[in-house]
Amino acid sequence: MSQKPENVFVGTYFEPDEIERLRQEVTKRGLNLVYHGEWLQPASFPAEHNHNLKLTPQQWDTWINDLKQADIMLDFEVNTLSRWVPENLTPRLRWLQATSAGVGQTIEKAGLGETNLIVTTASGIHAQPLAEFVMMGLLMWIKQYPLIARQQREKVWRKYATDELPGKTLAIIGPGKIGRRVAELARAFGMRVLAGPSSLEGRTPADYNADELFSVKKPALLETLTRTDALVLAIPHTPETEGMIGAAEFAALKPGAYFINIARGKVIDEAALIEALRSGQLSGAALDVFDTEPLPPSSPFWEMPNVVVAPHSASTSYPENNRVIDLFLENLDFFLAGQTSKMRNVLDKKRLY
């Protein structure tokens, strides 16, 4: 390590008790914690991290001066991110810990892909809440929640029958930490799980808590989808995955299949998804991410009774910040010991995840 780290700069809002915990742990390790909580808008919901800060010119001057002295950062604000490289705003920065898993595109667009900056993501932090969101969608689908809601709203007492999850086939494209937790819960419900990693080389179904692996390359992908009752996307957004799922893929699914997207909006063709939902090829969808966010009021998704619209919040849960802090402190110890190869969730800046 070229110079002994001195300053840890916290770039977004944390609750007072969380900051106090961080301050104690950082101080214990001989470092200084820099945090301008008095300038930051408090979170409007637990674990909110507002990356677009609104500061006065004088506050920005102080912020940038502190940024230039930062050796380590816990999360970032986007207002200055594009200026980091051209204006040399982070001359000392060696490591950035993000609070999100999907920061690859942001890091690349900021020109940080060609730097030596170590970036670690929050991969795995959101596995449980996202897996629960998937199971919520699957249960709403299989138990016909839209029918329940409609009959309750209309005060109609009409009995009906529903299907069951055991024996249904769930395909997961992108079975990373989130996908593996989805697979574990789905199998507990008796579903058959198919996992589609980016590569099959040296992989086994057990690696992903799955019953079977499949290739995400055509035509193998389309063949797998013909056997699929429910499809979950948990892939990162990269140039290779953008628009990956479109009309051909939706058409290949079993008629009446269910679709869940916890990846990014740009990995699908939304117009094709809307058409598949309208035609009945898909019986419903649970969507936490969209091509344009916030979702415009004009979007058809809002008024589709068989679609769950979540405002990119399925990953956020009450314990999140403390899990992020746990991860940061674990990585901090490896970083200070010069064992960067042991740090968790190091971003591959070529693959963007």
Question: Could you characterize what this model shows?
Answer:
With 353 residues, the protein is an alpha/beta fold. It folds into two domains: 7-124 and 317-342, NAD(P)-binding Rossmann-like Domain (Rossmann fold); 127-309, 3-Layer(aba) Sandwich (Rossmann fold), CATH 3.40.50.720. Helices cover 30% and strands 13% of the residues. The protein is built from ten helices and twelve strands. It has helices spanning 16-28, 57-68, 104-109, 127-142, 145-153, 177-188, 220-225, 247-252, 270-279, 320-336; strands at residues 7-10, 32-34, 72-74, 95-97, 118-120, 169-173, 192-196, 212-213, 230-233, 257-261, 282-287, 307-309. The strands form two sheets. Strands 8-7-6-9-10-11-12 form a seven-stranded parallel β-sheet. A five-stranded parallel β-sheet has the order 2-1-3-4-5, covered by helices on one side. Strand 4 (95-97), helix 3 and strand 5 (118-120) form a beta-alpha-beta unit. Helix 1 (16-28) packs parallel to helix 10 (320-336) and helix 4 crosses helix 6. It is globular and about 65 Å long. The model has no long low-confidence stretch (mean pLDDT 96).
Strand order of the largest sheet: 8-7-6-9-10-11-12
Low-confidence stretches: none
Q: What's the CATH class of the largest domain, please? A: Alpha Beta
Please describe the biggest sheet, giving its number of strands, its sense, and whether it closes into a barrel: 7 strands, parallel
> What percentage of the residues does DSSP assign to strands (E)?
5-15%
Distance between the termini: 25 Å
Radius of gyration: 22 Å
CATH superfamily of the largest domain: NAD(P)-binding Rossmann-like Domain
- What are the secondary-structure elements, in order, as H or E? EHEHEEHEHHEHEEHEHEHEEH
